[in-house]
Design brief:
The strands form four sheets. Strands 2-1-3-8-7-6 form a six-stranded mixed beta sheet, sandwiched between helices. The protein has a five-stranded mixed beta sheet with strand order 14-13-15-16-17, with helices on both faces. The chain is α/β, with parallel strands linked by helices. The protein has 13 helices and 17 strands. The radius of gyration is 29 Å and the shape is elongated. Bound molecules: adenosine-5'-triphosphate and magnesium ion (MG). Magnesium ion binds next to loops.
Length: about 400
Amino acid sequence: MFAEIIAVGSEMLTPQRIDTNSLYLTAELNGLGVEVASKCVIGDDRARLAEAISIASERSRIVIISGGLGPTEDDVTRDATAEALGRTQSFRQEVCDAIEERFRRFNRRMAEVNKRQAFIIDGAEILPNDRGTAPGQWIDTGQSVIVLLPGPPHELKAMFERECRPRLERLLPPQVICTRVFRVCGIGESDLDQLIAPAYTKYGNPATTILAAPNDIHVYLRARCSVETEAVALLDELGSQIEALLGDRIYSRNGDPLETEIGTLLRACEATLSVAESCTGGLLASHITAVPGSSDYFLGGYLTYTNRMKTEMLGIDPDLIALHTDVSEAVAKAMAQGARHRSGSTYALSTTGIAGPTGGTEDTPVGTVYIGIAGPGGCAAKRFQYPGDRERVRLMAVQSALDLLRRRLL
Ligand code: ATP
Ligand code: MG
């Protein structure tokens, strides 16, 4: 079953405000087994809104409209809905009384304009609002259900929970949506797609979505079935094919980021970690310490941006830097060894590179990063060449460093 969401409010067509109600509603609908097929934001414009509602109610079984139920001239949702459905509205004294009573409770007098909120579309069920003045409305046309909910998120959530979810449960055939996510690094988005497309294109259900962040790809599988065991079986079937294709490039199956994974691995072998950072400027340590409890295994780091600091803080021979330059395999290794030696950690990671946009040379173009690792198994460094701007290069380097450690720990 498909639903459609319309967020009403001109403020959400400015750069300052975004529609978050639809994210909440989507999560709730998915939980009920309903897919959101489309959503949109419409300004406080009665004609445009009426047009959108009329189109939505023709093609979707469920249409949820949020906002624009207030008392002022720019609150046009009631009128637009009535127009789209070709229904009239009538003033309901009991709704007006309830609004008036609410004002009295807060020692205020109801303004005349609030009477507008007591107009109910003919045939609609009234959804009481215990957090605000505007009641919601539930209209079942037979062909579709149109739900009007207030815009303020806490009002909308309370009303959805109490009034809409039970009604939707009665309306819907038993259906569940189960999801699985694989997080992957060390492969580009298009390479990954080429690799797993032969598996997932065989399936319409589960549906597969690939979302890419710098050196961190999320592969989402969503299965829709009438019972949970069926959905899980489908996820297992496609999931195992994807796992076989991606192998150890999958670093997480529960949505956790790489820094959480390496935390788990370090804890399991009671090992500690330190870092020596140049081009990532503390970003690597920042990611590692974003994980609660990281003090169990993370000792600290050396932020050595200049050659002098590399020598003073990590004990690197200035001749080695002069011979190889600071962005080199030799220096990345020496940084990791220096951090490990000086901190006494089991493992150490290092980064040195050129994040750009300037500073590249022919041999070492912008985007070149050497990542070093030192540990009980010895010391190594790897050269990476990343595309993209400074921020992206730095983020990719952090991911690569964490992944290098993960592979060492596996
Ligand atoms: P009110 O009686 O408060 O006017 P309303 O139903 O008319 O209720 P709106 O005026 O559309 O609601 O919105 C009130 C406030 O709720 C907005 O200023 C905004 O902060 C928030 N809001 C409205 N719609 C959304 C949305 N889709 N996502 C997040 N916040 C929203
Ligand atoms: Mg309003």
